[in-house]
Every structure is written in C-alpha cells, then in structure tokens.
Amino acid sequence: MNTVFAVLFVFVGCCSNVVFLELLVSEFPGCGNIVTFAQFAFIALEGFIFETNFGRKKPAIPMSNYVIMVTMFFTVSVINNYALNFNIAMPLHMIFRSGSLIANMVLGILILKKRYSMSKYLSIVMVSLGIFLCTIMSAKQVKNGTEGSEEQDVYFLHWLIGIAMLTFALLMSARMGIFQETLYKEYGKHSKEALFYNHCLPLPGFLLLSSDIYNHAVHFSQSTPVEVPVIGQAIPVMWLYLVMNVITQYLCIRGVFTLTTECASLTVTLVVTLRKFVSLIISILYFKNPFTAWHWLGTAVVFLGTLIYTEVWTSIYGALRGKAEMKRERKSE
Question: Which domain of life is it from (predicted)?
Fold first, then answer.
C-alpha cells in the first residue's frame, strides 16, 4: 500500500509541480535558486517538526553517509534548476532528464556489477535514441531561432552549457540513487529521515546564492496581486505560484523517497521517467511549447522503451494465458 500511495504522490505532486515551475520560469527564467531554496526550507521545517521531533530523535543512518548523499542531492537540485537559465526549454529539460534510466543502468553495471535481460538493454537503447533525437531537433530550433543574429554563437553556446549541466546532473542523480539503495540495504528503510536530512543539511549552502535569491524575492513581491479564495487576501501572483510549487514538490519528493525504500533504484527511475512523460504532455498542451513531429517521434520512442523495460507485454500475455488455462480447467471438470 505504501508503494501505491508513493506512486500516486509522484504523479500528482510532480506533474502539478511542473505546471507551477513553468509559470514561474516563463516570467522569471533565472528564478531557479529561490525556487530550490523555498522547496528545501519547507521540507526541512516539516521534517524537523514531525520526523526528528524538534531535533530530539537521533538518525538511524550515520551522519557521515548523509553528508555524502546531501552533497549529491544539493548539487543535482541546483544544477537542474539553474540549467533553465541557459536557453533550455522546459519540454527538452524533462525529456533529457528522462535519460536517468540509462544513467542508472550504466552505473549499476559499473558499480554494483549488475546484469540485465536483453529486453531491458533494448529498452535503454530506445530511451537513449529518443532523447538524442529530441536533443538534436531542439538544437536545430535554437540555431534557426537565432539565425542571422549577432548573438547566435553566444546563444547556442549557452544552450550547450545547459546541456552539459543536465548531463552532469543526470549522472550524479543516478549515482545518488545507487548510494541510497546500498544505504537502505545496510541500515534499513528510513525514507522520512533521509528526506529531512537531504533538505536540512544543504540549507547553509544557499548563503552562496543569497543575493540572487533576495533579488528574485523583490521581483516576486512586485508581481500582480491576486486574491486567494481560502484566506480572502490578495498576494503577489509569483508568491502564490511559488507556494503551490513548494507544496507539490513536497508531495513529489516524498513519494520518490518512499519509493527508494520500497523498490530497487532502477524501478524508482522508471516510475520517475513515466512521470516525466506525463509532465511533458501537460507542458506541451497547456503552455503550447514548440514541439515538432520529430520531437513527438523521439518522445514515443522514449515511452515505448519504458514500456518494454516494465515488461508490460509479458505481464499482459501472462494474464491472458492464465485466464485461458483457467477456462480449460473448468471445462475439463
């Protein structure tokens, strides 16, 4: 049952989170730092109260391990959000991060010495091809969108930097997932505790980003006021989007951390990948982001590869075969 609720939290929370994040980024493309800080501060406060009982509960996993995990988690979160400053469109951002499936498998083979079936290798190749196709098509759009401009080379260079940042975050995220998996095998499942320390310990690091966070806080306060029906008060719309982003991010990350204690690292990655596909469709349809037929083809290949990984066809065939055998047995009786 925990797994079911975790998957529900991942899909509802993460998909809603993408909507509010895009509303924020469309207005202020460089607001990634304030968004990340607000998410970390809220989840850390909730965990301090309800998980650690105001600091009185000792961690089950040694703090030294949390320091390693937190360093990776903080780096991934900041780089993923900051990459949006480098001309990375939200659909491409989501598609590219879906490559965590292949990153997780590659590191699992190299670090954990795991071996997988041919169907899983095939699925990973398909996911990689789909992401590669979408990335190439987006690269052409970036070039065409700035063709004839004096800033074309600079614009495209920024885009390449953004892709490099996403690639690094992809590998770091996969390494973190494997590290979490080994920790839970050794010390037991403590998803709520891990959620707290992963968001509390990095908070001092935001001091390095304090000036950027303050500047965006000022910009948010100057945005158009809207009345919130529940409280009957008018607040700047950007702060409303930020609050909703933080709440939905909490649901999303809570579901992901719960899944890490219930499922293998690669399975968690699969669920997150499917969630990203749903978020991608929402982003394209609701925000009317540019998406060509080639993008759709790449997305379809990613989705098909994910389905092959889950062996859904085998499950359907097995279920149908089981029903047929049951009917034959009843007839023989």
Answer: Eukaryota
